[in-house]
Write a structure and sequence with these properties.
The chain contains twelve helices and 13 strands. Helix 4 runs parallel beside helix 5 and helix 8 crosses helix 12. The protein folds into two domains: 111 residues, NAD(P)-binding Rossmann-like Domain (Rossmann fold, 3-Layer(aba) Sandwich), CATH 3.40.50; 172 residues, Dihydrodipicolinate Reductase, domain 2, CATH 3.30.360. The chain is of the alpha/beta class and 334 residues long. Keywords: Oxidoreductase.
Length: 334
């Protein structure tokens, strides 16, 4: 199988290494908006670097992996659809709902394969939590708490391109709420704070956010996120039911220190970032894409699944901006 990789930044470079090692991938063709970066990745992985995305599409590839800047995702999804090429795309599909719906319509019109990169679906902890909830181990689920905390803010130039904290970070938590519980969000109330570095205020974004979600069975969910968690990269999910409760993301590298006299101290090697924490999951999702392209497996996260998570993020952004509860029925789905 020949695969084209569009984008060789941090996550694209990681994907290049995974694909180059994959036994089913015979050749890898890479391109980036900064050609020198693609050349460097090609040298490291044994891939072939080309200057433009057009050259990737013309290289006789069997599928494409889109890891470019978010602003280019929708266009590249459309190009892959029109070329009849299966595509894997990092989330989100686009920076806004209109762009997302347009790209999904293009993929659906051409009956194209599109897998979205929600890597937590391949993490061992989240997979075990899903099995526990779906298997009734916790009894009636009444409370879910999620947290995604970055150790340091991204570069200021990234913020206007990110889509904001709800779409960029918390969208993963929203996808996990749906995937783990099997329920849909019906209502949100969200708020945020820009009291941290001034670049967030300049970008119209927030550095810290919190959302209260109500699920269709009455389960309550709190979802929080911050760009300023100096202790380390912290991603967790707590699920509490009438019979038991479990936690995802609590291990020897979780950046937490107990205030109790006999509690655990700070970890010696806290998680520094998303690639370290979810490296195995990223590899597994690309393996799933290769199996999907080969006709050996079903799509683990299609475009409509990604749209569902984005609609929750959109509702949270409306709620933050207008300071009110928002029903999910207010957010277009088609």
């Amino acid at each position: 199988m020949r695969i084209g990789l569009l984008g060789t930044g941090r996550i694209g470079s990681f994907h290049a290494g995974v694909l180059a090692r994959h036994p089913a991938v015979e050749a890898l063709v890479v391109a980036d908006a900064e050609p020198a970066r693609a050349v460097a990745v090609a040298r490291r992985t044994g891939a072939r670097a080309v200057a433009t995305a057009t050259e990737v599409f013309e290289a006789g590839v069997d599928a494409v992996v889109i890891a470019s800047a978010t602003s280019a995702h929708a266009e590249l999804i459309g190009r892959a659809a029109r070329a009849g090429l299966p595509a894997f795309c990092e989330k989100p599909v686009a920076l806004d709902l209109a762009g997302t719906l347009g790209a999904l319509r293009e993929a659906e019109r051409t009956h194209s394969v599109l897998q979205l990169g929600f890597m937590r679906r391949f993490d061992a902890g989240y997979t075990a939590a899903r099995a526990a909830v779906r298997g009734g181990v916790l009894g009636r689920l009444h409370t879910v708490r999620t947290a995604t905390s970055d150790p340091a803010p991204p570069p200021a130039a990234y913020l206007p391109l990110s889509g904001g904290l709800f779409r960029d970070c918390l969208i993963h938590d929203f996808d996990m709420v749906r995937w783990v519980t099997g329920r849909e969000v019906t209502r949100v109330y969200a708020t945020g704070s820009d009291a941290g570095p001034p670049m967030f205020r300049a970008a119209g974004d927030v550095d810290t956010a919190a959302a209260l979600l109500t699920l269709d069975d009455g389960t309550l969910v709190t979802a929080t996120s911050t760009r300023c968690n100096g202790a380390g990269y912290d991603v967790r999910m707590e699920l509490a039911g009438e019979a038991d409760q479990i936690t995802v993301g609590l291990d020897g590298r979780t950046p937490l220190t107990s205030a109790e006299p006999d509690g655990p101290g700070a970890p010696a090697d806290p998680w520094p970032g998303f690639l370290e924490r979810f490296g195995a999951a990223y590899e597994a999702e690309l393996d799933a894409f290769v199996s999907l392209v080969r006709g050996e497996a079903a799509n683990p996260c299609d475009g409509r699944e990604a749209l569902s998570a984005l609609r929750i993020a959109e509702a949270c952004e409306v709620s933050r901006r207008e300071r009110r509860a928002v029903e999910l029925t207010e957010i277009p789905s088609a």
